[in-house]
Amino acid sequence: MINSLSTSLWLVALACALLLVLRRPVLHYLGARVQYSFWLFVPLAAVLPWLPSLPVTAGIASQFTVTPDLVQNAESYVAANSYFSVWIWAAGAFTLVAWMITTSFLFYHRLRQGQAIQLNDSHALQACHLSSIKSPAICGLIRPRLLLPSDFHERYNERQQALIIAHERLHWQRGDLHYNLFAYLLLAFNWFNPLAWMAYRSFRQDQELACDAAILAQYPNDKKTYAEALLTSSLAFQHEQKAAMQFGTPHLNHYGAHPMKQRIQQLTIQRGFSRWPLLALIASGVAAWFFLLNPAGATQLMTTSAESVERPTPTPIVRVNPRYPEAAVEQGLEDVVLLRFDITSEGTTDNIWVEVSSSDPIFHDAASDALKRWRFDPRHQGRDYRVAIAFEIP
Question: Long-range contacts of range 87-95, CB-CB < 8 Å, 24 or more positions apart?
């Protein structure tokens, strides 16, 4: 489990770095909606190590030598490399999640002060005036609620109001509020990684850019009116002093809360949405899982030979050497025991049996009992691995 978690964190960091590097050219050449869809690659990278590995068969035996004075204890090994770093990671993740829950509770408590209003909207979107906000927003995970500043109808003209409501409603229809929650949880699990914080910020910005692009695709003649509404909302939002509170409520989308210069500039660069770049990115993720996380299985499936693919038994992460049987030491016996076994999805060993050979049975139980406590990288999950354990007296 720890190996899968570590691999997942590394892959998330790699995916964030790649998307941050490619963000500017993708926005310019492919558009905001394609760039926003590319963020799907981050959760995809996070789950790759947890996917089941491809089954593989027939391994080449690796040999390990045991002497009477060589004993390694698995429990001592794990204790020496204790889960201290894991506890630190879990504490950081728990802190961010607790902050989100607390700030969300306080925010929804403030909503009770809102004054419900009726909108001339065919979607019957619930709305309320809230004096504590300066920019229109939408919140909620089950039922959406449109939050409007008290002077909403005075600050914006009728057409601007319609565009703002369409913008916030689109966030809900696309599931952006739910994506924000998942992105925040992913950030909590990667709290120690500065790339994750940069990626989360860019993800939220690209979300707004993509929503802007989608609205202008529906109303291409309202570009100027839409830009004026953005500018007005941005100027009002700058006076808000609740950044920490808003960070802790990922299910809240503010209309004017993101870098306005970039949003205004992006309005002049309109690109149609194509699914091909996203499909290519997903295909790349599948290929990475297939070839990087299942090297033996990939080799086996790609081979044209009808015979099983020979591959070496991987080096164990934890290797417990058998205790040399006292009776064998007294008799001066030496031998080699050939074992077959499977590696499970958890990296443990299973289906251990001694291959029929001329080895002395006095060593069989010692070799099998030790192999039960070996641990491998779960990416090597497969059947019918072989290992030879040599018992030698120096």
Answer: 89/192, 92/188, 92/191, 92/192, 93/188, 93/189, 93/191, 95/191
Alpha carbon dihedral 104, 176, 181, 253, in 10-degree steps, equals: -30
**Residue 306: predicted pLDDT:** 40
pTM value surpassing 0.85: no
Name the nearest CA neighbour of 23 among 198, 258, 154: 198
DSSP strands (E only) in the chain: 59-60, 62-66, 115-117, 126-129, 137-139, 145-148, 253-254, 311-312, 335-343, 349-354, 382-391
Q: Are 347 and 334 in contact (CB under 8 A)?
A: no
Which is nearest to 246 in space by CA: 94, 139, 93, 119? 139
Tally the residues of the chain: 394
Greater confidence (84 vs 79) lies with 84
Calpha distance 205→3 (Å, rounded): 33
CA–CA distance, 255 with 161 (Å, rounded to integer): 12
pLDDT at 97 over 80: yes
Virtual CA dihedral for 72, 75, 76, 82, nearest 10 degrees? 140
Indicate if the pLDDT at residue 58 is higher than 50: no
Q: β-pairing, 126-129 with 145-148?
A: parallel
pLDDT confidence band for 249 (50 / 70 / 90): low
Distance of CA 25 to the CA centre of its chain: 24
Q: How far is CA 357 from CA 32, 63, 296, 353, in A?
A: 65, 15, 27, 12
Residue 66 is encoded by which pair of tokens?
């045991």
**Span 281-332, pLDDT tens digits:** 778 777 766 666 555 555 555 544 444 445 678 888 888 888 888 888 888 8
Q: What are phi and psi of 189, to 5 degrees?
A: -70, -20
Q: Write 74-82 long-range contacts (CB < 8 A, 24+).
A: 74/318, 74/320, 74/373, 74/374, 74/375, 77/318, 78/318
Question: What is the C-alpha to C-alpha distance for residues 199 and 45, in angstroms, rounded to an integer?
Answer: 14
Q: How far is CA 40 from CA 33, 96, 282, 319, in A?
A: 12, 22, 9, 38
Q: What is the DSSP string of 139-164?
A: E-SSS-EEEE-TTHHHHS-HHHHHHH
| Encoded tokens for 35 | 């760039």
Taking CA 116 as the corner, what is the angle to CA 110 and CA 118, rounded to the nearest 5 degrees? Answer: 150
139/148 Cα distance (integer angstroms): 11
